[in-house]
Amino acid sequence: MTRTDTLYDVASLTKVVATTPCLLRLKETGFLSLDDSVLEYFPEWGTSSVLRPVSLRLLLTHYSGLCACVPVRVAEQGMCSILAWVREEGIEREPAREFIYSDVNFILLGEIIQRVCGMSLREFSRQAFFSPLGMNDTDFSLSETRRARCAATDGPLGQAPLGVVHDPVARAMGGVAGHAGLFSTAADLVRYAVMLFQHGQFNGRLLLSHESVSEMVRPQSPRCGGEIRALGFDMASRYSSPRGDLFSLSGFGHTGFTGTSLWLDPGRELVICLLTNRTHTGGDVVGLRRTLANIASMVMPPGLMFPARPSVNTRTMTGIDTLAGQDFKGLKGKRVGLLTHSSAVDGFGRKTLDLLVEAKDVHLVRLFAPEHGFSSRREGTIPNGRENPVKGLQTVSLYGQRRRPDREFLEDLDVVLCDLQDVGARFYTYATTMAYCMEEVAHAGLSFWVLDRPNPITGLWPEGPLLDDSLQSFVGWGPLPIRHAMTMGELARFYRHYRSLDLDLKVVSMRGWHRHLWFDETGLPWRDPSPNLRSLNAELLYPGLCLLERTNVSVGRGTHVPFERVGAPWIDGVELSKRINDLFLPGLCCYPVDFTPKVMPQKGMSCHGIHITVTQRDEVRPVRLGVSLAEEILRMHGENLEYGDVDSLAGTSGFMEGLRNGSAQEPWHETWAWDLLAFLDDRMDMLLY
Known about the structure:
This protein is of the alpha/beta class. Helices cover about 30% and strands about 10% of the residues.
């Protein structure tokens, strides 16, 4: 008798529940690109021109031209035999021309995952997804207790033992393969579906980036074919019976030979999970899938599964909005020091400072100002008392003779409140100022509150090397990648954990903010956080272009578009533009431009260079752009390029020398990717959204 905790051999659902998400996790952390040729991962194939056009993307969409399956006799001899057979006999059609549903594709992808990350598909999928999702009954290999809960399947030679994979090739491969071998329950598979609906998040943990989930579930197959496939998932093909006749065209899912299917309709926020063992019982599972989908579409209204899911159109409330809405609860009767600037405003454009001054029974004692001063417009060091935005209120500059608050400025306080608008880059100094204050407040035994506000360039897509401990400075305080994809509240939690601070930390969280939101999608008023970051595009490009700040190349400071252009008197802008465009960096393009900056470097000099245009901001990887620019300028004009302490910005020693010698660790290089993968795991417990 089937129970709610019955385990089923989910057959080809393995492709989309295990193999595909694991591959995308490796992609977003820089281990691989979906457009890589399979030859890059199987050097034993040599330089075969037949297989060179086969990319990982074509494997995922079943447009690789490889045949449907591997003979069992070949699989029994191991992976070396499988690879040799694929090279000699596996090609059936020209790549990217025709849809062939192929287990071979996913057998190769499963092997690629193991070669890239050094773990088996079973181990990696369990660590990266099944354990964090609470999919405790999902695995390739089952204990005796779990086997007793398995539905029976028929093997090719009669009754197969319970808990042994039905697919003969997967069984010959030891039960762990990229195309089949997984066992699961309906409850576990729905957890996985909920994670996809929630843009890669589950119970506050980000398991896949919003970009990866979006890429995973939208059409990716070549337009020449009549079958529409996403990455791993089916959308509209001869295998789409679980979609029924009423699901929206944006739906996606997959089927399994044992009679299993999983189909998701984002428009209705509806999941249909059907688990059967039709290989044992027989029956028309295709008709059953279609009928169930039609019934569910008719009787379940949109949004029934997730009625409390917030709309992405909800206006974001920052930490100060939340605190003011609570009538400054927790601060009544407290002596408060405020670390802020004029860019920190509420949803109505009112400065946090003004709201604290007007708050009843809140005793604002002192103002601390970061780099650029309270006005957010000053350059260079700022003495104490230079700015007095409120009469009688002492202003302490933390970008003058001191970078930390002295004990004398803390001893008459109960709470230090921090509200700063960050820009999402490690070397932007507001986060370091907050970290320094946290350390001093911890030593003084006070409370530290952070009024959280959005990361303007989203909370997704961390990028770049982690900061070496030996390079810690005011432009880099902790082991973060260049683009950290965290809010100030999350950074505060990360810093407290990293430094093991004995600190009473409270983060006043935002409401209505989601990690995939750009600042212009929050409904909040914009205030430039510093003199040279004047647009959202500039903030997006800043984590990359700032890598050139300590060279003799202008990055547009002293023009009307800082951090949107690069140039010098000795640069060939036409050639640089051509080289960067020829790299096909995602989401941007550039064109030659001449400009004359009003500040150093190259003050008053006619510079030749490029202007960078963002065409698809979700696709832009700014650190990759910055590294590419440095590399190409070195190749073109190495004799003219001067550079000083770029390492402290890059976060890794010998950065420019490595580029000059052709051995730099690029952001998508394996060494950086391993560190980034570890960072993503560490930061999960620090995320608030």
